[in-house]
Amino acid sequence: MSEATEVVVVGAGQAGLAVSYLLTRADIHHQVLERGRIGESWRSQRWDSFSLNTPNWTNGLVGMEFAPDDPDGFSKTGRLTKYFEEYVRTFHLPVRPGTRIVSLETSPAGGYALKTPSTSIEAAVVVLATGAMSRPRIPALAQRLAGDFTVLSSGTYRNPGALPDGAVVVVGSGQSGCQITEDLLRAGRTVFLCASRVGRVPRVYRGREIFKWWRDMKFFEVGVEELEDPSVQFAAQPQVSGTDGGHTVSLQSLARDGATLLGRLRNIDGHVLELERNLQECIDFADAKARDFKTAIDEFIAKQGITADPPSPDPGEPELPDPGVSGEIGRLDLREAGVSAVIWCTGYDADWSWVKLDLFDDRGRPRHRAGITDVPGIYVVGFPWLSKRKSGILYGVSEDAEHIVEHIGRYLGRR
Questions:
Q1: Where does a domain end: 294, 319, 344?
Q2: Whole-angstrom Cα Rg for the chain
Q3: What is the pTM of this model?
Q4: Are 411 and 375 within 8 A, CB to CB?
Q5: Are residues 96 and 130 in the same domain?
Q6: CA dist 398 → 154, 231, 364, 384 (Å)
Q7: What are phi and psi of 42, to 5 degrees?
Q8: Do 333 and 378 lie in a common domain?
Q9: 89 and 235 share a domain?
Q10: 175 and 262 in one domain?
Q11: What is the DSSP secondary-structure string of 297-323?
Q12: Residues 284 and 356 in one domain
């Protein structure tokens, strides 16, 4: 069985839906193929207490506001996925959930063939909107862990009650690691957190939520070509949380709340973790980034002549408890510490195993310029730093989608 369409969009998350809306408006025939449900990654790769880290006013897609009744709030994922479903219904988008793609390759007839378990779909154009979070990035040293521990990732962790009794080790102190640590501490669990070098930001500074400052400062509009240090594209998102109405989070605040902080995980020998003695370095790095953000805001306020609240103490810098910080520990015996579970919060990678095209660079990332690849008719969208700093969050996907759909129209001879 074979089908044909002008454009196939792979993925029905925020990026794929924004592209579909714009293709529909341009009267370009297309299909949106989704392996699971609409917004599947938001449903299956988030824990129960997860809240968006971006305020509601940043999360709408082109053509429809998100949570207009509470623009400054921070929503649970359930509200976001309901919004995606409403978006599809409102604009009659041609989404096919439960459609897994086995392979994408060139077609003998020209264009591309996308094979599913039941059919082959021919298309002149394919938009890859699967995002950069297809599979957890778990380091190879995880295989050295003894087999008597429950092992999860940030994408498979759900809630403290689903874990066996005992202490928990969280590896990685980015957004996910910090928020899962908070979730566990609130349930009364003993938590050991292996830190990493990640920046942080205050949720509110000088009377305003940080995203509003960044919007006004054009922070999100910085393009890839403007970066003095290209490595910024690959840095972890700064520590911050949208839970409980949004709040500041830091290594210090987690220690204050009861977490035992450790240095970076260096190696595993069965049930023993070998650790770097670099906790203070991780704390100093995060604090320095927070100071940089605050200094930039101070300078913006002064330059623009804005009336703002005076600086206030940073809630991310409470005095560290003693002996709650264990950054000088070089090893941790998990059995002696009563640990039953390890949660890897070490990031995600995209899964391109099904794409059989010469599309990727030596780091395994699609070669592209603002989402337009060097393979004619193939586009990518919904990835961090696709064109600007905001590309990797809901706030930026619609602008990237507009650029891509405009190019598709020209490619198909429709404009």
A1: 344
A2: 23
A3: 0.95
A4: no
A5: yes
A6: 27, 25, 25, 13
A7: -65, -30
A8: no
A9: no
A10: yes
A11: HHHHHHHHT---PPP---TT-PPPPTT
A12: no
Can you read off the two tokens belonging to residue 239? 């520590």
H-only helix segments in 45-203: 77-91, 175-186
Which of 164, 354, 29 shows the shortest CA–CA distance to 152? 164
> Per residue of the chain (415 residues), what is the pLDDT tens digit?
689 999 999 999 999 999 999 999 999 999 999 999 999 999 999 999 999 999 999 999 999 999 999 999 999 999 999 999 999 999 999 999 999 999 999 999 889 999 999 999 999 999 999 988 888 999 999 999 999 999 999 999 999 999 999 999 999 999 999 999 999 999 999 999 999 999 999 999 999 999 999 999 999 999 999 988 888 888 888 999 999 999 999 999 999 999 999 999 999 999 999 999 999 999 999 999 999 999 999 999 999 999 999 998 888 886 655 544 555 789 999 999 999 999 999 999 899 999 999 999 998 899 999 999 999 999 999 999 999 999 999 999 999 999 999 999 999 998 6
Could you tell me if 59 and 203 lie in one domain? no
Q: What are the Cα distances from residue 403, in Å, to 55, 128, 168, 203? A: 24, 14, 45, 31
- 380 CB-contact burial (10 Å; exposed 0-12 / middle 13-18 / buried 19+): buried
How many domains does the chain contain in total? 2
Q: 10 Å Cβ neighbour count for 394? A: 21
Of the three residues 315, 344, 373, the one that is the final residue of a domain is 344
* CATH of residue 48: 3.50.50.60
Task: Report the DSSP beta bridge partners of residue 122.
Answer: 4, 113
Of how many residues is the chain composed? 415
Residue-number span of the structural domain to which 38 is assigned: 2-134+350-411
Residues 291 and 313 in one domain: yes
Q: For residues 141 and 101, state if they share a domain.
A: no
Q: Which amino acid is at 221?
A: E
* Cα atoms in the Cβ-side hemisphere of radius 13 Å centred on 359: 23
The CA-atom distances, in angstroms, between 58 and each of 52, 66, 225, 365, 398 are 11, 8, 24, 27, 11
